[in-house]
Amino acid sequence: MSRRIIGLIDCNNFFASCEKVFRPDLADSPLVVLSNNDGCVISRSAEAKKLGIPMGIPLFRIRNEIDRYNIRVFSCNFALYGDLSKRIMRTLQEFSPCIEQYSIDEAFFDLTSMKNVTDYEEYGFKIKNHILKTIGIPVSVAFAPTKTLAKLGNYAAKKYPKTGGVVNLSDPARQNRLLKISPLEDVWGVGRQYREKLDRLNIKTAADLADYDPQILRRRFGVNLERTASELNGELCFDMNENPPLRKQIMHSSTLGQPTSSFNSIKESVCNHTVAAAESMRREGQLAGMIAVFFRTNSFADSRDYYGASLAQKFIYPTDDTRILLRSAVNLLKQIWRDHYYYSKAGVILSDLNENNGIQLDLFNRHEEDPRAKNLMNLMDRLNSREQQIFFLGQGISRGWKANKDYKSPSYTTRWSDILKVK
DNA sequence: TCTGGGGTCCTAGGACCC
DNA sequence: TCTGGGGTCCTAGGACCC
User: Which of residues 253-282 of A touch strand B (CB under 7 A)?
Assistant: First the structure.
């Protein structure tokens, strides 16, 4: 059997890079993208990183730096990022027959069967340059016999400019050299908690982890960390997964623009999340067996003023009908509602998801599916596929509770009215 | 004043069954 | 009052990922 060779492509500063694609005038400017509600920084351009803007910092704490260095600020625009992501994944298909999209901005791809590719470094640059030229997003590429090593290689491709953004770790000697200089926190699967505990065992580098007794790792940290260590040794434990299993739950929630004590505002917010979650569930062809609604006051505030609640309901017949889901959501909300608190977050979770291929029939309660419901949902999904055209009354009209998005870029690629004009 | 949103898996413990 | 092994299902909590 020939050795496996797995590639990993990972976009550089993805959200920030997306914003720059349509603003070439900002190519060299420091730029940050904010979380929902313009709360904190979730993506930074290279220039912003160089200025020392940390990941996750709240906007209000970098007001000075923004003024002093003229940092450009953008609210997040997921329609734009999702669309560019799709284009990148499509492009990658030209380079590998087997792709696993791992997140919005990264994908593993298997080159094991591509015998004509022998110079991986050259191939990596080919991919990188093609994506930069056709889509405008800079990416890093790494190759290795396991996913965990490919991840580590990709880290190195970003960290060491000398690599030019491409790292080939197919050779064990190179793997070992990188393991020795990689701190534990660069390893995929090692978070802060594990790092601190491993540090006490005198495990400080990726090489230390790879060399440690696997049985002790398993006993003290579980099977996944043991696998991570094996993967660092070049032994494949996390294989490619071209068709990731369908999601088991779908959550939609948000922080509100302003805390509110108004039942109506929270109800509208919950209804909107329900509609969005149902839409995304139908896109996957799934049905919900359960719905849960939750809301809470600001968790950072004084605990005396804290109230949060959640309540779930099971469906006898799993459903994807937004009208049924909305009815349940509002019902649940009414049951746990309390006046006089100021709520800042609300959302909905659809779970017990089943594939929509014939609902299990109950011997005694025959369930007749209403074909009109299906048609109605299809029609709504089509009309709303690019931007929202029609909605349920429960979603509200004024939407005063909506998250702040003061710095949003236009939806260049997904909204007709925002399409870029060429003079 | 202002602190994201959306997921997964593993493990331990309790209830319950034979 | 004490004694046993095995299994399932559920839940909560903790860890990780982007």
Answer: 253-255, 259, 273, 280
Lowest mean pLDDT among A82-96, A119-133, A203-217, A334-348: A334-348
Distance A396 CA to C15 C1' (A): 39
> What's residue A394's pLDDT?
78
Residue type, A357: N
A44 touches strand B (CB under 7 A): no
Longest dimension (CA), chain A: 71
Q: How confident is the model at residue A379 (pLDDT cuts 50, 70, 90)?
A: confident
Q: Is residue A245 part of a domain?
A: no
pLDDT tens readout for residues A118-128? 999 999 999 99
With vertex at residue A187, the alpha carbon angle to CA A184 and CA A192, rounded to the nearest 5 degrees, is 60
Whether A165 is covered by a domain: the verdict is no
Per-residue pLDDT tens digits for A46-55: 999 999 999 9
Q: Cβ neighbours of residue A181 under 8 Å, at least 6 residues apart?
A: A205
SS3 A384: coil
Domain CATH for A292: 3.30.1490.100
Domain that includes residue A265, residue range: 250-395
In angstroms, rounded to a whole number, what is the distance separating the alpha carbons of residues A19 and A412?
10
Question: Does A29 fall in a domain?
Answer: no
Contacting residues for A285 by C-beta, under 8 A, at least 6 apart: A355, A356
| Contacts of residue A374, Cβ cutoff 8 Å, sequence gap at least 6 | none
Does residue A222 belong to any structural domain of this protein? no
Strands A166-168, A139-144: pairing is parallel
Number of domains in chain A: 1
Q: What is the per-residue pLDDT for A395?
A: 79
d(CA A289, CA A383): 26
Percent share of chain A, pLDDT over 70: 93
